[in-house]
Write a structure and sequence with these properties.
This protein is mainly beta. It contains 1 helix and 7 strands.
Length: about 170
């Protein structure tokens, strides 16, 4: 048995770049930075920054493109994937990227000020967050609809923003 799972909390190095595959599904690419801090033998604080390339697909990619911005704090959960390519100098290289299946926007709205008014629930160790999961593969067909009683429709709400995807 093996496990390929990555959990990262970091800041975006650039705005997500969203493209669309021929089948119409979105693909968002961006990078995030994580920092590691320690004290050396002399007691001086040292910091090392690691950059991680992130890829999000489908609805998760669309949401990232709409709401994430450079400098924003984000939680990404997914798997690591390697890709071989030949550089301009003719040398074969390996690139690593994180294929995300869960994303949480962390921090304040100003950290990820991507337009749109979204409600951020309270809680978590990292301050306010909004969580998104990639859709799970369909395992079984949905159950047949149940018969419902005829009830009056609820009163309309005036402050609903139709542009918000959640």
């Amino acid at each position: 048995m093996s496990v390929n799972k990555v959990i990262l909390v970091g800041r975006l190095g650039r705005d997500p770049e969203v493209r669309y595959m021929p089948n119409g599904e979105a693909v968002a690419n961006f990078s995030i930075a994580t920092d590691e801090q320690w004290k050396d033998r002399d007691g001086n604080r040292q910091t090392r920054t690691e950059w991680h390339n992130i890829t999000l697909y489908r609805k998760l990619g669309e949401i990232a493109g709409q709401y994430l911005r450079k400098g924003g704090l984000v939680y990404i959960e997914g798997r690591i994937q390697s890709r071989k390519y030949t550089g301009k100098d003719g040398v074969e290289r390996t690139a690593y990227e994180i294929i995300g299946n869960e994303m949480k926007m962390l921090g304040s709205k100003s950290d990820n000020a991507g337009g749109g008014n979204y409600q951020e629930p309270q809680g978590g160790d990292y301050g306010q967050s909004q969580s998104y999961n990639a859709p799970a593969p369909a395992a079984a067909p949905p159950a047949a609809p149940r018969r419902q009683e005829n009830r009056p429709a609820p009163a309309p709400v005036d402050d609903i923003d139709d542009d918000i995807p959640f």
